[in-house]
Amino acid sequence: ARHIAPEYIEEMQGVAEGSGVPYEDILAMHTHADMVHYGHDWGKPRKDAGAGHECSNFAVWGPGTVDGKLYHGRNLDWTTGTKVQSSSVVYIGIPRQGNPFALVTYAGCIGAVTGMSAAGITFGEMTSTTNDETLDGEPLFIICRRILQYCQTLAEVEQMVTSYAGTTGWNFVIASGRECSARAFEVDAGDKVVFGPDDEKENRPPVSRGLPYAVYRTNHPISEKMQKKILEKAGIDNYEVAKIAVRGMDTWQRYESVRLWLAKEHVGKVDARLARAMLQTKPLAGGGNLHSVVFAPSDLKMWVANATSPPNKQPAYTQKYRLIELQRYVGEGQ
Fold it and tell me: What is the rounded distance in angstroms from the CA atom of residue 84 to the CA atom of residue 71?
């Protein structure tokens, strides 16, 4: 709690008071993502996840899209077996200070791992655990909320991400509709690595390649520093062999599929409909897909699909994508 801003503590206390759920439980909900991934073996398939068993994000703009606008596609893949999707909500907040925002989250949560702000900033994360982790930091749900509420530009996003007290390992794709660009971040407790489009740090074929009009990530890091941390966690000391082995893993196959789609098959064709189709296509589409979202942040629009609950559980990408127009809620003055 000492890493959480007082305004968010007050809001969680309000949720507890209004719902009758103890505050300690509300607080624990917001630390769940960090706790469940703490000590997790990187790359280990999750039960009930199926193909595409973890997350994927891509943001594409300019010559990569039909109209030059930015589109951000995001699949949250974990497991549909916990029934958490029965509490799915879109939380639209209009705070006293900062940007109005829309979070794709769960009942009782004031933060999220997916969302968009009225400033045209979009956020999506992917697990990428390293050996550099702690629970003495700012929870993932809260840093997502803080970025969306208070950042106006990618420069402000970069400053906030690189200075926050990290916990476990994550990849972020954060985009700006106004600036028509995006950044990929690879973070853990000790390091924060920033990638822009066509970043020289990413152009290390055949393992990774960048594009000048897109950024994309799945569940493995691209930076050499983060890769070596993961290998240390797994007890692997041969970096060159590991670079070859990763190409047989699901996370790399999803990363490379996105790259090929954006660089070849779908170059110049991406719009909201095609971004959704990419999220619905293997290897990105998998049985553990909790929610699937397409953002068009320059228009403050997002299309959201959530998984259905057991016993007839179906992954999110098979469900209807519902349009949320944030401008309707924040007014013409924003």
Answer: 27
